[in-house]
Amino acid sequence: MTAFLNQLLQNSLSGTVLILGILLFRKITGDLSKLYVRILWLVLLLVLLLPPANLGSLHTVRNLMPETGQAFSKKQVTGARETESQKETGIEIEMPDGIAGSPGNNLSSGVAAGTGSKIQGQKSEAAKGAALGVTEVLFVLWILGAAGLTAVNLAGWRRLKKRAASATQRDHDVWSTTQIDTPFVMPGFPSRIYIPQELEGEKEQLKDILDHERRHIRNQDPWIKCMAVLALIIHWFNPLVWLAFRTMNRDMEMYCDECVLRRKSTVQKKHYAQTLLDFACKSRGFSPVLYFGESSTKRRICHVLNTKRPHMLISFLLLLLISGCGVSFLTAGEEAGKALADTHKEALLAGTLPEESVKPDENSGETDGSEEEFWTDKIIVGTGHAGMEPGFDESEMSLMSETEGFSLYSMHEGEAMVVRTPDCLVYAEVPLISNYEIEPLIQEQDFDYDGKEELAIITYVLHGTGISIRSLFMVDKAPDSSWNIYHYPEEDYTEELTSHFNTQYTEEGVRLIFDGEPTGVTEEVDQEELDNEYAYYAGSQIDFRFIEEKIILRAELAGYSHINHTGNYPGHELEASLNYIGEGKWEFTNVNYTDAGITEVIENAIPLYLTGQTEEVNEYYTVPGIKLPYFGETNEEITILSISVTKEDLDGDETEAYVTIRRDGSDSLDYLHVPMKKVPLDFGGTWWRISGEITMEK
After folding, report:
1. What are the beta bridge partners of residue 596?
2. How would DSSP label each residue in 210-233?
3. At what angle do helices 312-330 and 35-49 cross, to 10 degrees?
4. How far apart are CA 68 and CA 54, in angstroms?
5. Which pairing describes strands 168-169 and 398-402: parallel, antiparallel, or unpaired?
6. Contact at 8 Å (CB) between 226 and 187?
7. Over the stretch 290-342, which tens digit does the pLDDT of each residue have?
8. How many beta carbons lie within 10 A of that of residue 202, not counting itself?
9. Could you give the CA distance from residue 370 to residue 377 in angstroms, rounded to a whole number?
10. Pairing mode, if any, of strands 670-680 and 654-663?
11. pLDDT tens digits, residue range 50-94?
């Protein structure tokens, strides 16, 4: 038992050092091919799962690891040291006067010696028992953790096998079923590819997916991931192994993407990137199954479009470095290991530890700065200042939009932006348009009230099935007179949004808690999803927009569980006004709740209705049987400033929306009362429609 725990901790400690090295290597190599880091992850799996090979007297990195076996016998050794000390100094035992301490009394000397020996034996046995007890407790804790993770993984595997049981074979390695909505590879003999049945008609997407999954099989990735799951179960107590599992899975997917797209054109790469977005899904924890759209879709897309293959000499040096790393961590010298163990034993007996065995810093597992940072993670994505050389060919700039003081240009077919400020050009490797070809929105204004104009930019490049995210940027002059393009990162605004809501579970279903109060529709959720921690999240449906002089953030909340492939949208929506306070910082004001169905109907129907297009409103946006009267033709422009509802009514079938509008930029406002009612949809569920006369007041 002690030998097993010793080897387990030795492997885990060596793996920890190697993981930190791999994370640093990933940072340094940046957009280079993931082939090299993939090899390092394979080395890590062997380090975590196998004892080191014996190289005789050769000294390797493994010999520098502290001898963890002493940790399980430290109390025993300490007890022995105390016993030796007692033998040297003697033990004083209180005896009656005339007996104890009498140098001439042989009887007293014999009694003292015998009693002292008995006490020493009892202390030695007690120390030995204490050490044994600690070892047993640690072993039981490890067994419980490993068994628990194994049970969870097997339960998930069983559920997936049950879903796949009804699949129909479409090719020698391809099976389709209606029970799934994300393609995946299941390890086996041979491994199988499972696809959603509705995907069979999408030939271009299906080709991308099958190429990707077959490459996984050729790379033996299904079995490599099984090894990784085993390593995670064995080293469940090591947080860096969990981080390594997630990062290895991401690199495995990126390398597979590389292999599929090798020698492909830019157009083909963009089509493949869109397929990734269309099947983006949440991480499946530590499942051995390889899901097509899993694992950091945004980073995968960035890598797909920016992968670089190193020069042959650099490639040779990297492989040489990796080979040396493998030898150092997979082997150990017998004599050197024995000498190091003796050193630690002597140190323990002396009551001190050598400097080499100082416990690592508890914060050494932090990963700040160890991940590749793409524009979606950055705050400052571009910087420029007066007199600075552009560093790019200005003739390649294509004007997208301009204001009085700023111009926005596209470069590299929309894959980068350039902003002309009053003082200089600012370049940022941030895409402006995607294959949806929705152009960015811009607005010039003194947003932070510092007396100088800034330029706000809204782009729409992150989208696909289940994902619709607009991104917000601010071009602002810094105190040192340089100009920065600040990005509002997703994690910042989702953290602020999350502070306003939670998930409540009742007998009737799942409710959203908004600012401490149950709000909106009660959602019926399957027990299986509830058992897998179903809850509401913000982040996959984000809309930034300009409304007059304000910037508005609108977020739909999706319900996810650990078994969901895509989010479930019951209609919950949060809206907030954003105030820019300078230097890339924002603050929220007026966070409100509304229903996405009501918002959609109001924003589409009201401008049509108020400009005389009543027939279209009656056809698409009113309850069947309700006909709004003809309003009359006008050429007015209608701006919807706000939409509010009575939150308490939204769990029922009827409510009233209160809409504030402005006509033709007029200073006066109009207020509309719009009755709303839920109606059933043809394909299931309900949606809101206008249910009666729209009234208006100034």
Report:
1. none
2. HHHHHHHHHTTHHHHHHHHHHHHH
3. 10
4. 18
5. unpaired
6. yes
7. 666 555 566 666 666 666 666 678 778 888 888 888 787 888 765 444 444 44
8. 15
9. 13
10. antiparallel
11. 888 876 656 676 666 665 544 544 434 334 434 444 434 343 333
